[in-house]
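Subject: Interface between my chains keeps coming out wrong

I've been trying for a while to get a sensible model of this assembly. When I model each chain on its own everything looks fine, but I need the whole thing in one frame so I can look at the contacts. Pasting all components below, labels as-is. Any help appreciated, I'm running out of ideas.
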Amino acid sequence: MKITVVGTGYVGLVSGACFADVGIEVVCVDIDQKKIDKLKNGIMPIYEPGLEEIVVRNYESGRLSFSTNLGEAIQDSEVAFIAVGTPPGEDGSADLKYVLAVADEIGKTMSDYIVVATKSTVPVTTGCKVKEAIQNALDKRKSDLPFAVASNPEFLKEGAAVEDFLKPDRIVIGVEEERAEEIMRRLYKPFQLSGDRIIYMDIPSAEMTKYTANAMLATKISFMNDIANLCELVGADANMVRAGIGSDPRIGNKFIYPGVGYGGSCFPKDVKAIIRTAKTYGYDLRVLQSVEAVNEDQKHTLVKKVKKHFGDDLSGMTFAMWGLSFKPNTDDMREAPAIVMINELRAAGAKVKAYDPIAMEEAKEVYVGDKVTYCDDAYDACVDADALLLVTEWSEFRMPSWSALGKLLTNKVVFDGRNIYDRKYLKEMGFEHYGIGI
Ligand code: UGA
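Reply #2:
Try treating it as a single job with all components included. I did that and got this:
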């Protein structure tokens, strides 16, 4: 079986490499020639555990190839996945120009039946628009070639993308005809998912499933952050409340960790987009509007605690920041709460010394520039700093030498944005510990 995957971002590259790894012939297409050249040389555009290995292995075996020529790639392909970006427009709605340009190009160049499946997160009704774009291009060619559209949203998480793709919880496939369903069934056969974990449905429902999943997860996080803030006021411990409620299987123990707010390229964008979609249908998604508002506030929580401890004027002070990326195991800085915190600390007159195991280059080049001093390691960031802010819970930050840190920091104060430290132990070591909801 041969397929084409258009777009070599997170979703496209991981999907392409993983499909190749289970024996499918895959052409990954991107308009960015430089990116394609780099991929051919084994240089990954993103940091993702295990990705380089799987890309290089499958490229060398010949099952995975890279091209900028979409028209050529889709010849003999049974499926073309659209996995290009859908950046948020100014009003929060997802911009479909790249998705529709790909659909148009497929319509212009296809020469046989093909299933065109969207893997990018796209608003409900995009399936119809993709179909229309392909049909229009075919009409212009006076061609009556048959094709099908499908929606196959991707649920992988950054930082665990390869693993998530190879061992999915479930596969959601929106299709409208049997021939396409059969092709998709064959494509996912190597993943050996039992019947009820491949869920077939109509296209709008598949599109809606993706947004609903992310919106639900974002809701759990904002809900818990809201509760954590109340826990602090009433003298309860949000960690204990979390453990207490998480043991109820109806609630579950995942995605209820309070923190500095959710970030990344998905939750913020998708929550905005679904609110926007609802508005266009004259409906107010009130719960999600609050989810978004709570999240915006939560990004300020840690610096508020810093100001409560040291006063509003932080001029002349320096803070060590551990972690910049929006979560561990990724260099992704999109919507990272660290950006908000850095700006806030600087606005109050403070300097920031930052260390992140992977994301410093990305932070420096695109998001934070020279607003912070980038340090060689976690300890280096603490030299003569007034306090430590833990922003991203990378493994290497979990068990530092507190005695060494006590000597480096001017004040033994830790602002723990992810509740990873044991307050009792820190107290024994002479540290003051601030957490979220505790
Ligand atoms: C998310 C979803 O988890 C994936 O299923 C989905 O495929 C993906 O979006 C997407 O739409 O492409 P991702 O953005 O990679 O994946 O990151 P998550 O692991 O979901 O974390 C999102 C944010 O929530 C992070 O900032 C994280 O720190 C925060 N979070 C997560 C919490 O604050 N508390 C928690 O308990 C869990």
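Reply #3:
Confirming on my end. The longest helix spans residues 203-234.
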